[in-house]
Recover the amino acids of this structure.
């Protein structure tokens, strides 16, 4: 008899109902928030990796010269000093990241001031030999190339149709000083 009386009192009690309701509702609120933080974090990490790939490409072109890079036919065997190996070692995105190097262009630098020029390399200082397509006296001619990296980030969920279903294109650029 004592157990039946306890069960009746337990059935009539309402003291913990609001705590149980909160636990059920909070689970549905915290789960999307947690997934959103995860997706944002992985997208930010991927974007930083794309930036690392662009900077590694610019450094490789800077060290090895403008004619030293090619993005096709490279493998990371021995020796592992190719443009593709430099990109792969800088990022964990592997071959999914695309890196390209634009055409070289000229500029004139004077102290901390830089001016982009419209003429094509070779970049020279104006003198008696070079009178056109050159930097004014007192300015240093520099040749630069733009390194572009891109990667398509695909989130784990499409979030009920928000955002593109084929992913987001993440890009980064870096400038290589050639000579």
């Amino acid at each position: 008899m004592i157990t039946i009386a306890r069960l009746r009192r337990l059935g009539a009690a309402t003291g913990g109902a609001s705590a149980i309701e909160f636990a059920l509702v909070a689970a549905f609120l915290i789960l999307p928030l947690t997934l959103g933080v995860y997706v944002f974090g992985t997208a930010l990490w991927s974007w930083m990796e794309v930036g690392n790939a662009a900077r590694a490409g610019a450094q490789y072109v800077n060290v090895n010269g403008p004619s030293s890079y090619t993005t096709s036919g490279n493998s990371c065997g021995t020796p592992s000093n190719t443009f593709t190996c430099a990109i792969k070692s800088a990022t964990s995105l592997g071959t999914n990241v695309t890196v390209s190097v634009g055409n070289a262009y000229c500029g004139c630098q004077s102290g901390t001031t830089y001016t982009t020029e419209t003429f094509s390399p070779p970049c020279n200082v104006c003198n008696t030999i070079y009178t056109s397509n050159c930097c004014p006296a007192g300015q240093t001619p520099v040749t630069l190339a733009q390194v572009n990296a891109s990667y398509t980030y695909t989130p784990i969920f499409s979030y009920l149709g928000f955002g593109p279903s084929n992913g987001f294109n993440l890009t980064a650029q870096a400038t290589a000083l050639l000579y």
The mean pLDDT is 79. The longest helix spans residues 17-64.
